[in-house]
Design brief:
The structure holds two protein chains of two kinds. Chain A is α/β, with parallel strands linked by helices. Chain A has two domains: 76 residues, Methionine synthase domain (Methyltransferase, Methionine Synthase (B12-binding Domains), Chain A, domain 1, Orthogonal Bundle), CATH 1.10.1240.10; 120 residues, Rossmann fold, CATH 3.40.50.280. Chain A has a five-stranded parallel beta sheet with strand order 2-1-3-4-5, with helices on both faces. In chain A, helix 6 crosses helix 7. The two termini of chain A are 29 Å apart. In chain B, the strands form three sheets. Chain B has a six-stranded parallel beta sheet. A two-stranded antiparallel sheet of chain B has the order 1-2. In chain B, helix 10 packs across helix 11. The chains are: A alpha/beta, B alpha/beta. Chains A and B meet through helix 4, helix 7 and helix 8 of A and helix 11 and helix 15 of B. Bound molecules: cobalamin.
Chain lengths: 209, 412
């Protein structure tokens, strides 16, 4: 059944994947199996995206399937030891309301075992600081799709510095406007304009790969 | 009265563009120029003043164009895409196009839910924003397919326009009356701006109107993009039927722009980057292609602004007759596009605004030199920025470096 779930998920057969997951989750140890299989499937979808075989529509569909399945799987995992690689506070920076890319990255990061705290879009600098204080993450992810957002990221990182929190965290930036040059300009630690690479780099920053 | 000298300049500029569109080598590379928020900053005014005050807007544009002349102008008060309202009123050709762009003063009257303007919902220095949203449920596809115009008027308009929420109410009637007054004032202002541009040697007439891939109407205004992407898998037949129904309405609307003098239709593409070549060809391209061909039959050419990555779909242009129009690119490398499209499609873009914002003048000179060296030979190329908006704090010496480099290396 795990094999079938993996295959239908990666082939984008939503109905079939959800149906199998629903059956599997009721079996002994099924919830853990569903979780692991879906994570594996998300990783495979990410690989196909990086290889140019899958496009954004497949990432969105996969993210949606993952969320649908997790909705009935996670409650069954209460009490199980689910390993977390670490915590990331994630948001789209002030002035920018694009959320599609951030949401895709979020699901893929979660599927890889990172605990993501999503603080939304158009996030004021201070809200990043508050979230860091509250959740004590190892990573902070910032998303930016408009040119104006670049300044906003720079300013956010300055405010994090002023709050004395910069040394406690690693910062990774993503979204359509980021590059090596932007990363250096704003003072982040890593950048990725595709979700699969972003997840890989996040794991590296966590020392987990 | 426009001086003969400026009339001649306007003719030269128009001829330069025309030659590139016809895939020839003009005298110089046509250059659409830089613009955006920087124009207001250069004139020392806020984004709020630039978007709400016609006189200040006009003076800012004139100042910019005197120092940074190009082959097409900046100028006029911009707005946000309000296509659902044009669709709702498409049976009124004197009105439908008037509603298409909601600018600041119009939005004060309409109160659109997708819109945020400087000095209103935003601070005075931010440029206007379209924030989108979901305005239709999947169960409503049948209604949309049956009559896209009625659906837009009865269902969408009340959901997106705060002051038209209750159609037929005194508030909604007063809103439409006020909108008419605002539009009349604006028409007079736009004529003034047009006259000022003519005095600076910019072509009058032969303008551009808008057009949209039918699926982008659904993605931008009805379902919100990620939902549409899921609908394509869940309700493929409905999505296709909706695209066809919308095509008829949109073609009609764009041709109203032609009747008002436009010779070109600009399509901003949104869903393109999301789709695999298979989904693109099955769902997006058929109605887009037909749209382009139908406009062509009526003597209009198209300009497609391919947002995001368009690499996977480049070859679809080859299904159109050579010289059909202009393909403008954002992330796709224009050199790569040229390999596929040379001698067939005029290519536009090339200047990554990231380089203008963060490069040095020397780097920019070198960048433009290499770009033009690769793109000018053989003609069929219009130089321009990959996105339309330079932020307020773009170093002005970098802007100057672009124009100087175009002057230096842009001669055929
Ligand atoms: C969809 C869209 C919109 C939608 C947004 C819907 C939504 N809910 O997000 C709407 C219509 C609302 C919109 C509005 C606007 N938009 Co818009 N939009 C786009 C469009 C077409 C696609 C963006 C997108 O979703 N891409 C797909 C996602 C998946 O890509 P991504 O974000 O890069 O994410 C990937 C990676 O970067 C990574 N990732 C994402 N986040 C993160 C985070 C981390 C930490 C990591 C590691 C990785 C990572 O994973 C993702 C998957 O691989 C682009 C054009 C284009 N094709 O790029 C324009 C575009 C981004 N928009 C643009 C503009 C200008 C605007 C507006 C300002 C327009 C206006 N005048 O109102 C407003 C923005 C208002 C604002 N303040 O933000 C410009 C930006 C230009 C610029 N350089 O500034 C673009 C490029 C279009 C253009 N060419 O002009 N837009």
């Amino acid at each position: 059944m795990r094999e079938q779930l993996l295959k239908s998920f990666v082939d984008m057969d939503e109905q079939e994947a959800v149906k199998i997951a629903r059956e599997l989750v009721e079996t002994d140890g099924g919830a853990v199996a569903v979780l692991d299989t879906c994570k594996e499937a998300m990783e495979e979808v990410g690989r196909l995206f990086e290889a140019g075989e899958y496009f954004l529509s497949e990432l969105i569909a996969a993210g949606d399937m993952f969320n649908q399945i997790m909705e009935f799987t996670l409650p069954k995992l209460q009490g199980e030891e689910v390993a977390s690689l670490g915590t990331m506070v994630l948001g789209t920076v002030q002035g920018d309301v694009h959320n599609i890319g951030k949401d895709i990255f979020k699901v893929m990061a979660e599927a890889s075992g990172i605990n993501v705290i999503d603080i939304g879009i158009d996030v004021p600098h201070e809200k990043f600081v508050e979230a860091i204080k509250e959740h004590k993450p190892e990573l902070v992810g910032m998303c930016c799709l408009i040119t104006l957002g670049v300044d906003s990221m720079k300013r956010t990182i300055e405010v994090i510095k002023e709050a004395g929190l910069r040394d406690d965290i690693k910062i990774i930036i993503g979204g359509g406007r980021v590059s090596q040059a932007v990363m250096e300009h704003v003072g982040a630690d890593a950048w990725a304009d595709d979700a699969a690479r972003g997840v890989r780099l996040s794991k590296e920053l966590l020392g987990k790969e | 009265m426009v001086s003969p000298e400026m009339q001649k300049l306007a003719q030269e500029r128009a001829a330069r563009m025309q030659a590139a569109i016809e895939l020839k080598e003009p005298d110089r590379v046509p250059f659409t120029g830089l613009g955006g928020d920087i124009v207001a900053a250069y004139a020392g005014i806020t984004a709020y003043e630039f978007e709400f005050d016609f006189e200040k807007n006009r003076q800012a544009a004139i100042k910019w164009l005197k120092d940074f002349p190009a082959d097409s102008p900046v100028g006029g008060i911009g707005g946000l895409d309000n296509l659902a309202m044009s669709v709702a009123f498409v049976d009124f050709p004197d009105l439908a196009n008037q509603f298409f762009m909601v600018n600041g003063p119009m939005n004060d009257v309409l109160n659109m839910k997708f819109a945020r303007f400087p000095g209103r919902q935003l601070d005075e220095y931010s440029s206007r924003q379209f924030i989108g949203g979901k305005n239709m449920e999947p169960e409503e596809y049948d209604e949309l397919i049956a009559d896209p115009v009625k659906f837009s008027y009865e269902k969408i308009l009340p959901r997106i326009a705060g002051n038209l929420a209750d159609l037929g109410s005194p508030t909604s009637l007063a809103t439409m009356a006020r909108l008419g007054m605002v539009k009349a004032q604006q028409a007079a202002e736009m004529r003034k701006t047009g006259a000022a541009l003519a005095e600076l040697g910019y072509p009058t007439g032969g303008g551009s109107t808008f057009a949209f891939a039918p699926l982008d109407y659904i993605g931008d205004h009805l379902r919100d993009l990620p939902n549409l992407v899921l609908d394509i898998r869940r309700y493929p037949d409905k999505v296709k039927a909706a695209a066809e129904a919308i095509l008829e309405v949109l073609v009609k609307w764009t041709l109203q722009g032609k009747a008002a003098g436009a010779v070109q239709a600009g399509f901003p593409l949104h869903l393109n980057e999301y789709l695999s070549p298979k989904l693109y060809r099955e769902f997006y391209w058929p109605t887009l292609k037909e749209y382009i061909l139908r406009l062509r039959e009526e003597g209009m050419r198209s300009r497609l602004f391919c947002e995001g990555w368009h690499d996977a779909h480049l070859d679809t242009f080859l299904e159109l007759p050579a010289g059909w129009g202009i393909a403008a690119f954002e992330k796709t490398d224009v050199r790569k596009a040229k390999k596929v499209l040379a001698g067939h499609t005029c290519i536009s873009g090339g200047i990554d605004v990231g380089v203008v914002i963060s490069g040095t003048p020397a780097e920019i000179d070198e960048y433009i030199k290499r770009l033009l060296g690769d793109m000018m030979p053989g003609g069929g190329f219009i130089l321009g920025p990959n996105v339309g908006n330079l932020p307020r704090n773009t170093p002005i010496e970098n802007v100057a470096a672009v124009y100087e480099a175009v002057e230096k290396y842009g001669k055929y």
